[in-house]
Amino acid sequence: MAMTDAELAAHLAQTAGELLQAVRASGMLSLKALGKAGDATANQFLVHALREQRPDDAVLSEEEKDSHERLDHSRVWIVDPVDGTREYGEERTDWAVHVALAIDGVASVGAVALPGLGIVLRTDRPGAVPAAPERLRMVVSRTRPAAEALAVAEAIGAELVPMGSAGAKAMAVVRGEADIYLHSGGQYEWDSCAPVAVARAHGLHCSRIDGSDLVYNQADTYMPDLLICRREHAAIVLDRLAVAQAG
């Protein structure tokens, strides 16, 4: 029996993660070479597998030359072979593999593998998001937290939780390790498509930081900002964001 789109996304994300773990376990590469080898290995696998399994769909990958022919497709697979190359090379666990399917611009199906933790979160198997603590936790970049995120965290009294890749941050909210992921430092479609698909499937709020919709498979793949949080926290975060930006 053929795999569903969600099953395919999960299978590919998990397998790519296993390949990346094997490349890292070889112990034969420098930090810089490891990142390049990992990206290339995972990308080749994901792109070839998708083109074989879904030949009528388009593919957009961070590690593949873009073609605007994808703009003529309703169904576009958007992948990030290694989200968090630095963390992957440093043998941390806060890196991810993203495999998503955008349908008519919407992040509809996807999986995010966290190979360092042995976990794959997917749209077809949503679980309950754990309850938030009294003091909210905001996940931010461990190297360059966005000014808007810091301002909102201060305004609502949130605890900052530094973390690596975008996928790891988003899945921290899904897994109940954090409550808000606010990013305004610029990303690309492959950084957020799979995390947004998974987060939405788990009932979370996902939007731009002005509250507008996230739209994928655009000619320009740059996406300036992102908000993922519990639905009950969205209004206050967006309100504080507006105040911070106005100031």
From TrEMBL:
Taxonomy, superkingdom: Bacteria
Keywords, sorted A to Z: Magnesium, Metal-binding
InterPro entries according to UniProt: CysQ/Inositol_MonoPase (IPR050725), Inositol_monophosphatase-like (IPR000760)
Cofactor(s) required, per the database record: Mg(2+)
CDD domains: CysQ
GO biological process terms on file: 3'-phosphoadenosine 5'-phosphosulfate metabolic process; sulfate assimilation
GO molecular function annotation: 3'(2'),5'-bisphosphate nucleotidase activity; metal ion binding
Positions contributing to Mg(2+) binding: 62, 80, 83, 191
Protein name: 3'(2'),5'-bisphosphate nucleotidase
